[in-house]
Amino acid sequence: MEDLSLWIYIAMFGVAFVAGFVDAIAGGGGLITIPMLMAVGLPPHVALATNKFQALWGTAMASWHFARSGLLDFRSVFIPSLWVFVCSGLGSLAVLSISPEYLRAVIPFLLIAIFLYVLFSRGVGQSDRDAKLKPFIFYFIFGAAIGFYDGFLGPGTGSFWTFALVAILGLEMKKAVAQTKVLNLASNVFSFIVFAFSGNILWLLGITMAIAQIIGARLGAAMVVKKEVHFVKKVFLIAVFASICKLIYDLVK
């Protein structure tokens, strides 16, 4: 399966660059890369596995840049990340015996609620606010719920994390985006391990896309650091809206 045409490697390099850039700012990179991987002829399980491998590198680069820029303190999210890792593993195991179709139908409506809340809530994410839950309780509840969901199904995970960190924990939007990257990274690692042992990753294509992801994520993370919060909020809303459209299209086609 690795004997793909040169044009596929070139095209997917460009796709991964764009996905890494967008994902570092607002999430949703997988909604760009997975359809394109399947469009060039990869079976769904191979597309998902290869996508998980290449996306890890973009998320790791964005996390590293956010930490260097002062938006992220790894020590504050280390324990929550371990909890998310465990819960995502439980989700991955559960999906083997439970159909995700019921949950798939609900996700677009949850994203619509997030979109409307962020769009119409004045000042949301503009600056740090008082948390509605203590951090330990917040990470215990949302780490379990979102981590499990990411291992179980996945679409919209970044949006759910950013929304929860802004609306419940009271973080400013840019800090929320930075923490989202680390928490996403933690939940994705388990899936990558599963896919790596399954033998479904196309390593050469994955490495090609990973290089592009690193470049795109580096530029996207730099954009988050340099731009004002309202820019990040606009990109977040666009990404959530695009996710809603894509997921609804998948349901009705």
From TrEMBL:
Keyword Transmembrane helix (UniProt): yes
Localisation: Cell membrane
Keywords: Cell membrane, Membrane, Transmembrane, Transmembrane helix, Transport
Membrane topology term: Multi-pass membrane protein
Membrane-spanning ranges: 6-32, 77-99, 105-124, 136-154, 189-215, 235-252
The UniProt record lists the keyword Transcription: no
A Pfam family recorded for this sequence: TauE
Family: Belongs to the 4-toluene sulfonate uptake permease (TSUP) (TC 2.A.102) family.
Protein name, as recorded: Probable membrane transporter protein
Native organism: Campylobacter magnus
